[in-house]
Backbone:
């Protein structure tokens, strides 16, 4: 499907509005024609003394009524066509948002947020202009031009009309060529705006890092450079416009000059009456606007075409992850997980992130995954959520290949506390109830108490109605983590995944949360990812991921007996803990000594 058919399917839905608009436009233009004619009649009548005041008054009333009709008509075509274009813009925006919501995370890794935002704002606006005002311009201009020219030929003189429109033909050919160049320049300009928006978006999101590293000045320079690139692309567009628009004026002026000379001559020799000469000049004046309008329309169409292509690119991208035709729509999963020869290679990597992982996690057990950073822990749970695709048969849920479980079912049955703890800029209450369809305050409080965050929330002046800033920045790291845990607990799903979700809480709170989890999650599957052995030592199964491989699997005591990586980690962490405590004691001792 090309860009035109793509946008046409939206226009088709509003065809009646467009037809009504164009008919009204036609009526307005047609009525417009009579005004110069009536002026001509008055002029001729008064010059030849064949018209009395009565006749003049009648003509004037006709002009007044025509004016009224034109005003109502102008309102109506605006209402129909602008209304349709606004509706299409809304539909396109909704469809684009719905489409993007389906896209998988990989798509968002590749496309900048700013770039997507530009397509939602500036590009959609350009598309709207091309299917609203530009359509009006073109129809109005062509209908008006044809009618006026017809009238000029019929009412005044054919040779004079032909002479007047020759320069205008130049405009038509010129505009086709101009449109093509403009299209390319608009595309480049929109790309530059995208880059600029991307920059601004990243810069604002990363403002804390920028400040901490005192990079404000460097950011300003980089922004100025991106801004300059955007300005240059804008200037490229404006330069062309500023050459072409005055050129149009020149050609129109030329037309008027030719007709004044030749028309004047015809009037002098009595070929045409003075009234017709006056009417002819008014007609020429009426052609100025259509010519300029065509120029504007070419601008808007070129810009619209470039933007439609950019929007269509979003729609053309299909989600890699979607339901297979033979999905089973089981509603309730039990939480029995099997990894069978699970190997996974990230896009752009040569070495697999996960290598031949085999493990069975019976429903109702707690699996802990531990391993050094970058070893594939998050990747493993992302695969379980089908944020990336796995080969058939590598991950089974309740004995079924996850590729054959409906995505909605799969994700509804998993509660997830992601490592980055994203919170929306909304109240804490809404953030915590985010995944639940129906909820009440009691269930929220139950979840927040289990996540040990209730006390902190009620201590805020606005309690549960506290609005957290964008990405939850107004909360401490630990508060954010615990709010995300509460959000996941609200879901009460058969599978709960906590990805490093206790890293920012102190050991006492951690112990509390783990105790609550044990109670709340009895009989349900829980996956705990952590770096600290203290977090996971009571899990039913512990898997040590090392270099993407499941090097050790077993319970805490089994792994301790293995004398391998796990035991090594345990010893090191114990030593670190002891050193920290001893350091603390020595510190107190020193301080005490200094005082005595
Ligand atoms: N979307 C992605 N595209 C390409 N590579 C990725 C992507 N996400 C992660 N990786 C790579 O996969 C490897 C494993 O990453 P992963 O996030 O699973 O590690 P992790 O064990 O969770 O680490 P941490 O303990 O730091 O959270 C890393 O080398 C990382 O660079
Ligand atoms: Mg991780």
Residues:
């Amino acid at each position: 499907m090309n860009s035109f058919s793509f946008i046409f399917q939206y226009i088709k839905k509003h065809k009646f509005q467009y037809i009504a608009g164009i008919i009204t436009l036609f009526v307005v233009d047609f009525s417009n024609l009579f005004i110069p004619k009536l002026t001509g009649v008055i002029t001729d009548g008064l010059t030849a003394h064949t018209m009395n005041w009565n006749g003049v008054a009648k003509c004037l009333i006709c002009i007044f009524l025509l004016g009224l009709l034109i005003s109502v008509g102008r309102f109506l075509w605006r209402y129909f066509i602008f209304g349709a274009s606004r509706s299409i813009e809304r539909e396109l925006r909704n469809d684009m948002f719905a489409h993007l919501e389906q896209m998988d995370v990989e798509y968002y890794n590749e496309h900048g947020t700013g770039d997507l935002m530009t397509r939602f704002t500036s590009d959609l606006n350009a598309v709207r202009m091309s299917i609203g005002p530009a359509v009006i311009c073109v129809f109005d201009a062509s209908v008006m031009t044809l009618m006026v020219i017809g009238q000029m030929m019929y009412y005044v003189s054919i040779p004079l009309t032909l002479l007047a429109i020759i320069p205008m033909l130049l405009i038509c050919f010129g505009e086709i060529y101009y449109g093509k160049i403009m299209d390319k320049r608009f595309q480049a300009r929109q790309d530059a705006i995208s880059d600029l928006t991307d920059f601004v978006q990243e810069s604002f999101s990363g403002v804390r890092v920028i400040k901490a590293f005192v990079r404000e000045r460097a950011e300003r320079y980089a922004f100025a450079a991106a801004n300059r690139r955007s300005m240059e692309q804008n200037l490229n567009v404006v330069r062309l416009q500023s050459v072409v628009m005055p050129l149009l004026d020149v050609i129109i002026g030329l037309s008027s000059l030719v007709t004044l000379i030749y028309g004047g001559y015809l009037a002098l020799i009595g070929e045409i009456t003075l009234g017709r000469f006056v009417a002819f000049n008014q007609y020429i004046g009426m052609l100025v606007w259509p010519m300029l309008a065509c120029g504007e329309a070419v601008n808007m169409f070129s810009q619209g075409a470039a933007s439609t292509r950019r929007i269509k690119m979003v729609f053309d991208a299909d989600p890699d992850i979607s339901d297979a035709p033979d999905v089973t729509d089981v509603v309730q999963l039990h939480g029995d997980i099997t990894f069978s020869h699970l190997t996974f290679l990230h896009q752009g990597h040569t070495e697999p992130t996960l290598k031949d992982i085999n493990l069975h996690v019976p429903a109702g057990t707690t699996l802990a995954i531990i391993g050094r950073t970058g070893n594939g822990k998050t990747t493993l749970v992302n695969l379980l959520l089908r944020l990336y695709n796995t080969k058939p048969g590598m991950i089974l849920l309740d004995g079924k290949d996850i590729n054959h479980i409906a995505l909605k079912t799969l994700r509804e049955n998993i509660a997830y506390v992601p490592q980055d703890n994203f919170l929306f800029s909304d109240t804490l209450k809404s953030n915590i109830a985010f995944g639940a369809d129906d909820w009440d305050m009691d269930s929220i409080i139950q979840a927040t108490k289990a996540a040990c965050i209730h006390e902190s929330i009620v201590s805020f002046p606005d309690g549960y109605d506290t609005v957290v800033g964008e990405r939850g920045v107004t909360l401490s790291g630990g508060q954010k983590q615990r709010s995300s845990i509460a959000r996941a607990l609200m879901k009460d799903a058969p599978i709960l995944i906590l990805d490093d979700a206790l890293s920012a809480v102190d050991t006492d709170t951690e112990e509390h949360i783990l105790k609550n989890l044990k109670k709340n999650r009895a009989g349900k599957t829980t996956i705990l990812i952590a770096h600290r052995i203290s977090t996971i030592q009571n899990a039913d199964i512990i898997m040590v991921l090392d270099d993407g491989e499941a090097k050790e699997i077993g319970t805490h005591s089994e792994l301790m007996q293995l004398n391998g990586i796990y035991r090594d980690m345990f010893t090191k962490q114990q030593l670190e803990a002891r050193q920290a405590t001893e350091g603390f004691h020595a510190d107190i001792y020193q301080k005490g000594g200094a005082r005595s």
